[in-house]
Each structure stands twice: as C-alpha cells, then as structure tokens.
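Minutes, project check-in
Item: structure for the 200-residue chain
Input as provided by the requester:
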Amino acid sequence: MTSGTPDLVALWQRFTDWLGAHAPADLATLRPGCADGELGRPADGLGFAVHDDMAATLELHDGVVARRASTEPGAFLLGYGLLDVDGILEAHRDLVATVEDAREEGEEDLVVGRTADIRWVPLARNICGDLLFVDHRPQHAGEIGEMSFGDPEYRMLWPRMDLMLVDLCEALEKRTPVTCVPRIPRLHEGRMLEWPVAAR
C-alpha cells in the first residue's frame, strides 16, 4: 500500500457502510467471510496462491447471494456481483478451458492474455457472464481487469484493489462517475445500486 492509502479492510468497511445507509438490499446480499478452513480452497483449486488483496476480501466477504435476474440486488460492484469461492473456481475453470481450446486450435496468440488467461482469478461476474478479475501474472500481479465476452481485449481498470475501492467510495459519496469505466452510481428504488454508463 502507498502511504496515505487506507488498507483494504477499512476501504471495504467504508464501502459497505455506504451500502448499509443507502442500498440496504445490496448489503443484505453479502455473505460472511470464509471460515479459516475455507481460505486454502482457492489455492488448492487454482494451483497457485491467491493475491493478498483477494485473500483479504474473501476473509471479509465470501461473495454475495447469487442473483437469478438483473432486477435483483447484489451487483453493486460496477454492475458485477462478488463471487464466492465456488464461483471463483468455476469461473476460473471456464477461463482455463478457453485457453486450452485456443491452444488446441492454434489460436493461443489471439486468446491468452487478451480474452482469457489461466492466471486471471475471477473476482466478480455480471448477469451476462462478463468478469472482473485479479491478475496473477507476475508482471501484472494485483491489477483489476475487466473481461467482456465479444471484446477482443481485456481492460486493465486499476493497478490495485485499494485504488479501485477508493475510486468507488468517492463515486458513491460524491455521486460522480468512475472515470476509468466510465459509469456513474445511481440508486434504484432506494435499495440497490445501478451503474449506468455516464454521459460523455
């Protein structure tokens, strides 16, 4: 962490405090943190240790209650719902399968590190299946990326999770766009967040 930047626990608390005051239905979808015995499961399933930021997040919140429709709460992270451990491993298996298929078809250069990578660990998923992920490639470790199906390249949104949370908290508190996306927070029925694209 850089000097002057709050730690992840404090930032998640700031974020969830805002949800509690303004978007209670979203807050209610958050699951408790992983039990001690569950914290090793991601590494066992992935084959490598998760980044400290992801481990800290799972200790606080093991994802959200799964959404069945776009009208349900829980997509408070830029329109994405936090994944629990099972969801993380399932979504990662899909990325691995995509990479393996590309290698078999001789299209590795078009896919690996562009639309899928075995070192991308899904953090959150939207109703369409698009992902926010924590990059675990050595030269990109800890970056927050967005992978949308149909796009030819992923987008790096933030270099670290703490910076993501600072931007999100400031956007919520000031009702201003998150400029790197760009999306702006909006309350729906006084109970849940939406993140429509900000007008340019």
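Outcome recorded: The chain has seven helices and seven strands.
No further action items on this chain.
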